[in-house]
Amino acid sequence: MGQKLKITGWVAAGAVAGVLTTVSLQTVARGSLAPLPLEELQQLAAVFGMVKSDYVEPVDEKKLISDAISGMVAGLDPHSQYFDKKSFKEFREGTTGRFVGVGIEISQEDGLIKVVSPIEGSPAFRAGLKPNDLITKIDDTAVRGLSLNEAVKRMRGEANTKVLLTIFRKDESRTFPVTITREEIRTQSVRGKVMEPGYGWIRLSQFQERTVDDFVKKVEDIYKEDPNLKGLVLDLRNDPGGLLDAAVAISAAFLPENVTVVSTDGQLAESKSVYKAAPEFYQRRSGSDPLRNLPAALKTVPLVVLVNEGSASASEIVAGALQDHKRATIMGSQTFGKGSVQTVRPLGPDTGLKITTARYYTPSGTSIQAKGIVPNVLIDESAEGSPFAALRMREADLEKHLASGQGPETKDPEREKARDEARKRLEEEAKKPPQDRKVPEFGTDKDFPLMQALNRLKGQPVLVSKTQVIVDNKEEKKEN
């Protein structure tokens, strides 16, 4: 990592990740490209005064300032954000993989919150919650109508406080209350196992502070179980990203030493950096090389990387590096396309600004932004295809998204047609009983893309997609 950037900034490589910067206000001022627009600032002060004195009811002046900052930053791009005290705390929790809550992975089903899995050892796990349990109420609030984020916020809170969940267990046809005491939860971002003799699977759900250490341990466990591994699947599906140094480290685990993993380019000098597969670019200041104990065979074992539309940012950095260096076959669907760098700078002891400072480029110089990584082999979600993939949002669909910087974007009229067809299919799917709508769990023998990845590693026929369309697939290079 460029040492200047490493020292002065906390760099985010994902939608929910970042790092705390020690940059001072003087440094920000030195980085200004133009003098302050005094006339416009006077107008801002005048509006503030009018709202404070003329609005129909008293307005909190701190909230006015906070809202003004939020509006200024929100006009830039979808990933720049002002953090107030509460959101800054939540942001930091996202990078560490620690938070205070009940310890369940959740999704939405029929307007209710479904328990995907309780985290092993968590308060929810000890309380007996099971996969597929439906949460109908959180304390006195009915869940129907709440967004997933709102439900999460209500279940989180301070340590040692209690939350009352009302549970409907479908297979027992009963509703019952469960009172759970919140605790600090450590999320597990790495899973893996030997799928069959000679073939392993490792899944990364996010790039957090502990991801690299957990990845190393999981690789060691797999090689201990099967020392003669003939192939490995690195599963990055639905991984929204996370910390940049973790993405560089995971890439370095498979690549030759010192090759380029990713480069960044922006206005600031420290935004123009090249990150290589070497310890000085990913190891933490106080620690040693976290990859030092990895089996040497990991550098050469045949590798398939699974991605989809939910693979973003740090996931795309890893997939792009392994693809450009021809170290892995990338399989799945075109990725999300978040190829921008966010740096988080504190504005005070408990507020901060997350601002886009650079674009990411793969080792070959191709921008990831609003394009994503195109797999070497396009694979559907199931043997029947990917009927709902067109409905998924990508970076290029987000309002005010940053352009790639490598030529104009093209809009595919066929995509809107595919979306209309997908909406009709979704309406039909919603009429089916819940048990007929289950999505196969990642890492099982019913996981169609994983089975195709294993077929690829074994030299067996692969069922490639016949319907997927590549969005804006231009082979353009970064200008130097």
Automatic annotation (TrEMBL):
GO molecular function: endopeptidase activity; serine-type peptidase activity
Entry keywords, A to Z: Hydrolase, Protease, Serine protease
Amino acid composition bias (Basic and acidic residues), ranges on this chain: 409-447
Domain PDZ: 88-170
GO cellular component, one term: outer membrane-bounded periplasmic space
Entry-linked InterPro entries: ClpP/crotonase-like_dom_sf (IPR029045), CtpA/B_N (IPR055210), PDZ (IPR001478), PDZ_6 (IPR041489), PDZ_sf (IPR036034), Peptidase_S41A (IPR004447), Tail-specific_protease (IPR005151)
A GO biological-process term: proteolysis
Keyword Protease recorded: yes
Region (Disordered): 400-447
Pfam families per record: CtpB_N-like (PF22694), PDZ_6 (PF17820), Peptidase_S41 (PF03572)
Transmembrane segment boundaries: none
Annotated family: Belongs to the peptidase S41A family.
Record-linked PANTHER family: CARBOXY-TERMINAL PROCESSING PROTEASE CTPA, TAIL-SPECIFIC PROTEASE
Protein name: S41 family peptidase
